[in-house]
Amino acid sequence: MNESIKVLLVDDEDQFRATTKRILDKRGFETLAAATGEQALTMIKEKPDVVILDIKMPGISGHEVLKEIKKISPETPVIMLTGHGALPSAEKAKDQGAFDYLSKPCSMDLLASRITDAYRQSGHDAGNGDSEKLVRDVMIPISAYSTLAENATLKDAVATLKQSYLGRDNTSSLTESGHNSLLVLSSSGKMLGVLAIEDIFNAVVPAYLSAPKPSTADSIQYSPMFWRGILCAQLAQNANTRLKDIMSPAPLTIDADANLMEAVYSMLQNETGRLAVTDQGEVLGIIRKQDILFEMGRILKE
C-alpha cells in the first residue's frame, strides 16, 4: 500500500496537475502539488518522499529545480516528466541525478509503479529492498474504482463510466486504465461482481444476432439499413436492467501477502485477467495482469 509515500507533483498545467493529484490520492499516495519551480523549492521543506517534476515550465525550468532540490535534499528521488521528442533533455536530467524520466502521455499505472520504486530504492523499506514485491504492493486500491449497488441500472453504469473518462486530463498528457470497469457492491459493501464495458455491450446486443445460423448464412452481410435504429431501441429497452443481471462474477481472490508468481499462476489456471486482493476476508483492491507486467518491467530494468 502507498499510504506513507508523500509525493510532490510539480507541473504548470492546471488540469494535468489537478487530475494527476486526484488519481494519485485515490491510489493511496499523499500528494502535494506545486504550479511553479519557485513554489516547489518552497514546498521541498515539507520533506516529500518522491518528487514528480515537469522539465518544461515557465520561470525556473525543471533542470534548474532539480539542481536546487539536489542541493537542499540530495537523497530525495526525482522523477522527471518530459514531452514527446525531448529525450536529450530527459537524459540530461538523469545525468543531473534524476531517478528516472517518463514521457507524456504518461500511464498512471507506470507512474505509480515508479513512485513506489523510487521510494523503496531511496532507503525506505531497506529491510525488504532486495525482496520481491507482494500482491498488496502492486494492486490497485479498491478506492480507485467506481462502484455501484447491485440494484443500479445499466443507465447508471453508462453514466458512471462516462464520468470517469470525462474526469481525465483532456490535454492527453495522462492516461489511466483503472476505469474500464466498475465494481458492483451489495448493501453491506461486499463485492458481488464486476461490470466491464464488454458486459454493457453484451446486454444491448439483440439475442437474435447471437443465435446459431445455418451454415449457408455464414457469408450473409447485413446492409446498413439493417443496423439503423437497433442501438437506440436496445438502449431504451435495457436502460433499467439491473446490474446484478448483467455483471460478470466477482473475481477470484488472492491473499494480499501472496507472491506475484502465485498471482500469475492463478490467472493462467483460471483464465482470468484480474484477482480480488483480500486481507482476512476484506477486499483491499484488484490486481490485474498489466500490474504484474509493469512489475516485470521494473525487475528487468534493474
From TrEMBL:
PROSITE patterns: CBS, RESPONSE_REGULATORY. InterPro entries: Bact_response_regulator, CBS_dom, CBS_dom_sf, CheY-like_superfamily, Sig_transdc_resp-reg_receiver. Keywords: CBS domain, Phosphoprotein, Two-component regulatory system. The modification 4-aspartylphosphate is found at D54. Residues 6-119 form the Response regulatory domain. One of its GO terms (biological process) is phosphorelay signal transduction system. Gene3D superfamilies: 3.40.50.2300, CBS-domain. It comes from the Bacteria. Residues 139-215, 247-302 form the CBS domain. This is Protein with response regulator receiver domain.
